[in-house]
């Protein structure tokens, strides 16, 4: 599992920043940052917060590699927002709640298209066609 | 700052990634830095095939390329058997306008670390020409997914974000450390020619499209080059009126479509030197572009001409400038590169 220093280094490199740049933005010395990234030094909460702010990361993420905020968001998502268009379609087709959720889950697996025409969001999915294609597996 | 930099969805993407500065360049830089780090960790890559293999491994991405309808059915059967019925939706999902799509496998259902994501590239018919670029476009989508990859993610595919993905694909698909030496070896510093572009394409990746390679060369050129696409079009004002309720005003004297250049893409050197052609300008009949458009027996044409012959509707012309033009037919359109002769 990556250390705090490794996570800082990875994010810094993702942003294309040098140690000098991050040190300046976080108001710490370059040698301190270098030691921190290489696991040679511990860091206090105040400095870690400065580094997190400079890197636009949460303190949770820097410390644990997971994001409490995102976790909270995801647990809210567990309440599941069914798009109106899908709800309407499900009602017309008399789909069960489980079948409706399965349709939504599958649609959410499609994360990208490359298309010459604009594709809509979940409200504009052709749920009828999508359902016809996958109904035998529901 | 470009128009794309001001799109809310593009600004939001850059912010989501924690980036500052011009959003498009910042996002491209972010992806480039990520790949540079992977390449460094691997000790370098020798070819674009090596690069793609490294990047897909890091992203846990597998490609499925479809060249026939039978390929599509085989692929659907394969993934449905692995309890991934969403692939069955691709029978209609891969319609005539869709070149590729990326699917996140259900992590709890036995997807291996190698294929957490499956990018399906539709290479059937004419879509095959876009195969290379579509692969890198799908890679671009995954490069900008934030680190919480297990969370459900569904990006809207609105146009500005897709354009950013294309920009990323254009930049990293033609990876500087591999592409630049090939271009330097093939292009001697004189005018860029279609023959050179094709030679570069073959050296770099023979299934990259000519047009994608052209843009990659154009971007890196230190001399001015303007890319144009010509097709039969109305003037912008005529177009607007034809679409509006004022259509009836034209009933006695309908407008006539003329060969125009709706798409004009200058490189940085051309912009710096104010070497330009205006979008939607009429192509003069004397131009090699016009002549090629009219002569269906030819696929390519080239020649010297003077931009002074390119006239605006008010009678003004482009500045006096001798240029070399190379043009190529692509369906009903002609695309061309225009470079000044010193």
Short description:
The complex is a heterodimer of chains A (138) and B (342). Chain A is mainly α and 138 residues long. Chain A contains nine helices and one strand.
Structure description:
By secondary structure, chain A is mostly helical. Chain A is built from nine helices and one strand, in the order ααααααααβα. In chain A, α1 (4-14) packs across α3 (30-37). Residues 68-78 of chain A have low confidence and may be disordered. Chain B has three domains: 4-173, no CATH class; 176-220; 221-340, 2-Layer Sandwich (Beta-Lactamase). Chain B has helices spanning 8-16, 23-42, 48-59, 69-81, 90-93, 131-143, 159-173, 176-186, 194-204, 210-220, 236-243, 268-272, 288-294, and strands at 61-66, 98-104, 117-122, 226-233, 258-266, 281-282, 300-306, 322-330, 333-340. Chain B starts with 7 loop residues before the first helix and ends with a strand. In chain B, 37% of the residues are buried.
List its salient traits.
heterodimer, A: 138 residues, mainly alpha, 4% strand, B: 342 residues, alpha+beta, Beta-Lactamase, 3-stranded mixed β-sheet, 13 helices
């Amino acid at each position: 599992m990556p250390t705090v220093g490794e996570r800082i280094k990875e994010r810094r490199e993702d942003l294309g920043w040098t140690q000098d740049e991050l040190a300046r933005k976080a108001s710490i010395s370059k040698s301190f940052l270098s030691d921190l990234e290489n696991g040679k030094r511990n860091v206090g909460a105040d400095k870690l917060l400065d580094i997190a702010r400079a890197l636009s990361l949460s303190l949770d993420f820097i410390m644990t590699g997971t994001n409490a905020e995102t976790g909270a968001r995801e647990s809210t998502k567990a309440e599941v927002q069914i798009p109106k268009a899908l709800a309407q379609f499900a009602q017309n087709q008399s789909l069960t709640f489980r079948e409706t959720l399965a349709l939504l889950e599958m649609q959410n697996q499609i994360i990208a298209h490359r298309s010459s025409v604009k594709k809509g969001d979940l409200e504009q999915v052709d749920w009828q066609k999508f359902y016809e294609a996958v109904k035998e597996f529901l | 700052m470009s128009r794309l930099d001001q799109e809310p969805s593009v600004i939001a993407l850059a912010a989501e990634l924690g980036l500052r500065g011009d959003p498009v360049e910042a996002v491209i830089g972010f992806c480039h830095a990520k790949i540079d780090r992977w390449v460094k960790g691997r000790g370098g890559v020798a070819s674009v095939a090596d690069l793609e293999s490294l990047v897909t491994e890091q992203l846990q991405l597998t490609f499925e390329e479809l060249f026939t309808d039978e390929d599509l059915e085989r692929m659907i059967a394969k993934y449905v058997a692995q309890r991934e019925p969403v692939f069955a939706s691709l029978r209609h999902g891969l319609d005539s306008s869709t070149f590729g799509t990326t699917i996140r496998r259900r992590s709890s259902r036995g997807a291996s670390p190698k294929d957490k994501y499956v990018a399906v590239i539709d290479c059937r018919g004419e879509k095959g020409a876009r195969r290379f670029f579509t692969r890198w476009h799908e890679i671009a989508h995954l490069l900008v997914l934030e680190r919480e990859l297990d969370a459900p993610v569904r990006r809207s595919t609105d146009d500005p974000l897709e354009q950013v993905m294309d920009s990323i694909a254009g930049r990293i698909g033609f990876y500087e450390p591999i592409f630049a030496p090939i271009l330097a070896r093939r292009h001697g510093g004189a005018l860029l020619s279609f023959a050179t572009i094709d030679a570069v394409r073959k050296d770099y990746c023979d299934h990259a499209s000519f047009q994608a390679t052209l843009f990659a060369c154009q971007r890196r050129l230190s001399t001015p080059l303007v890319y144009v696409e010509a097709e039969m079009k109305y003037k912008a004002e005529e177009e607007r009126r034809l679409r509006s309720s004022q259509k009836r005003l034209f009933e006695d004297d309908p407008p006539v479509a003329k060969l125009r250049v709706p798409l004009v893409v200058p490189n940085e050197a051309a912009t710096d030197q104010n070497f330009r052609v205006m979008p939607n300008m009429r192509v003069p009949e004397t131009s090699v572009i016009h002549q090629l458009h009219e002569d269906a027996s030819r696929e390519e044409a080239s020649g010297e001409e003077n931009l002074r012959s390119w006239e605006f509707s008010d009678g003004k012309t482009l500045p006096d400038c001798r240029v070399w033009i190379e043009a190529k037919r692509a369906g009903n359109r002609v695309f061309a590169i225009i470079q000044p002769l010193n």
